[in-house]
Amino acid sequence: MTNPLKKMYVIFLRINSLRSGISFIKAFIYLQVLRKKPRVFSGDDNNISNKTIASNMRIIHEDGTLPEHPTSKTFFNIGLNQGNPKSDMIIEPVNSVLSSRLSKKIDAKVLTIGPRSLGEVLNIQSHGYQYKNIKAVDLFSISSKIDIGDIHNLPYDDNSFDVVFCGWVVAYSENKKLAVSEIARVLKPNGIFSIGVSYSPKTNEEQIRERGYLIGSEDRLENTAQILELFEDNVKNIYFETNPEDLRKHSQIICTGSVK
What we know:
This protein is an alpha/beta fold. The chain is built from nine helices and eleven strands. The chain has helices at residues 3-12, 16-33, 52-57, 88-98, 102-107, 118-126, 176-186, 204-211, 224-230, and strands at 39-40, 74-75, 78-79, 110-113, 134-138, 140-141, 146-148, 161-167, 187-199, 235-242, 251-259. Strand 4 (110-113), helix 6 (118-126) and strand 5 form a beta-alpha-beta unit. It is globular.
């Protein structure tokens, strides 16, 4: 692909429907044409909350294990909304930090934990990061770009990444300090983390009655202070944080900072 065409392609990746379309086609070929099954993590799952894999895999494949997601749309049981525009909330604060260091952004080694589908990887690419420099890991995968692994024991060496994106993953952990310590371990000194967590005013019991199961672990994160506590004394800078303004409404918690 020539340079102008590559630049145009990356620009067009900002369109969520395009990312979703690319991800859907790849999923269709993998699941329906090649008749392959998703690769699934088979290691120690004691730190992973119940229903984590089944709940999140529905973004790419509805297998009937759980009640249908209330907002999901599928075709041939394959998710149609795989572009993950929600990940903008954890990507854009990092872009702001790196805006004065353009060469750093271009060359940054990036890890995204729990992207679920290729759509999140493509969204990161659309923000100016090189595809070849993006690693991805999840508990399941239908893409060669997404490694199989667990946030509690990431399959990467110490000090490997300049940036770690971790959107809506830590909430599924039964050992959140261990999960966050792994994020810190694989980051280089001064490396940037960006973590997203959903806030819900509903109790665990209300969630179970509504969905038929609990989303994430019983031990829920409700503000950025609780996220930062998980790093213990390993936070160098806090660049961005947003907390629920109205505890009666569903909202997002975003925390972006760097490690020592």
